[in-house]
């Protein structure tokens, strides 16, 4: 992994995988996964992960998203329900998180970190024979939007560390007036993210 990180200038890693529970995962493999997350963070890579779609009950976050070194992304589209007739802010998984492994860096219980649109997002379809693109919904669609915003920010400010980028991302979010366990810092606002004067 170290060789790959040095060979390719990876700055953002998106993980749009919902993991319902760590209880069904081999403990050694889960420990190793969390060590890789820490390693990637130490390599100055920002990890963006989906919160999961198990809301609206509290403490329903995907264990991957609630890792303290991940930016955990929930879903909020305002009042837009799309074809599913259910607002993503209802099914988006809620905090607080349960992972206490990174408490010295930040408060891991304050999860998700941010929310972004996630309903009817046009994305690639792995069943290419049906259609190359398809509209999908969920926090797995919200996370790549945040990842893309972070890439734009790094294009403007290429020397930001992952810690600095995370801070700018959360500071530029728009507060929706909801609890942190629902909205995190608030709704992603790309123009505010890119307009911040960091010099």
Taking all Cα atoms into account, the compactness measure Rg is 16 Å
Strand content range: 5-15%
The overall pLDDT, averaged over residues, is 88
How many DSSP helices? 7
Shape: globular
In percent, how helical is the residue content? 25-40%
Elements, N to C (H/E): HEHEEHEEEHHHH
Q: Based on DSSP secondary structure assignment, what is the total number of beta strands? A: 6
* Low-pLDDT ranges: none
Q: Biggest sheet, strands in spatial order? A: 1-2-3-4
The termini sit apart by: 33 Å
Biggest sheet character:
4 strands, parallel
Q: How does the helix and strand content classify structurally?
A: alpha/beta
Can you walk through the features of this model?
The protein is of the alpha/beta class. It has seven helices and six strands, in the order αβαββαβββαααα. The protein has helices spanning 2-7, 27-42, 88-91, 139-156, 162-171, 180-183, 190-195; strands at 12-15, 46-50, 70-75, 114-116, 121-124, 133-136. The strands form two sheets. Strands 1-2-3-4 form a four-stranded parallel β-sheet, sandwiched between helices. It has a two-stranded antiparallel ribbon with strand order 5-6. Strand 1 (12-15), helix 2 (27-42) and strand 2 form a beta-alpha-beta unit.
